[in-house]
Amino acid sequence: MHDEVFGLFPIPVLRAPGVLPHDLVRSLVTHFSSRTDLANSSSPNLSHTALLSPADSPLLVTVAELLTPKLAEFGALLFGEALGWSIKEMWVNLLEAGGRQAMHNHANSFISGVLYLTPTHPDSRTVFMKSPGGSEFSFKNDHAGVATNPYNAEKWISPQPEPGDLVLFPSYLLHAVPPNAGERRITLALNAIPTQLDSWGYRIRFGG
């Protein structure tokens, strides 16, 4: 008999390399990099486009078509059922050298995602964090000799992305981007909702 360790109630994060072909990535960068005219409130070197929908550009229609199967796959992990999914909104983020994205999560959605459109400096990968004020112990054991593992870590740095890669995560999950130590970093962010949720006959339908 051997001891067993169970990871209870894990939070899924889906990484899908190369979801977008290179020609589509280049077209998105060319089309949207000059349209990020909304300043970020926390970082002067970060700007965004207005909220977009797939109907705003044929490029985004193609993106939505490529992403929808991934949303259904990830949604089945969250809700235990293959549901219909739609992208509620998209926007492009342009992070210049020195810019950062403050810790945040996404309201009014269930799945959020990041599509990487340009190379990312290793020090500027997306970082996911535990929510503060959770149900963990109030005391901490934190010093140079501590071995960090999935059960005591407070943040997780996503793998090094390449242009065209996708990361999906539950919208409530806190995330941030450290100061950009490299060249201009462009990403396409998105929020998605299911067609409906059914709790023993009590159905909530989402439209838009």
Automatic annotation (TrEMBL):
SUPFAM superfamilies: Clavaminate synthase-like. This is 2OG-Fe(II) oxygenase. It holds the Pfam family 2OG-FeII_Oxy_5. It comes from Piscinibacter gummiphilus.
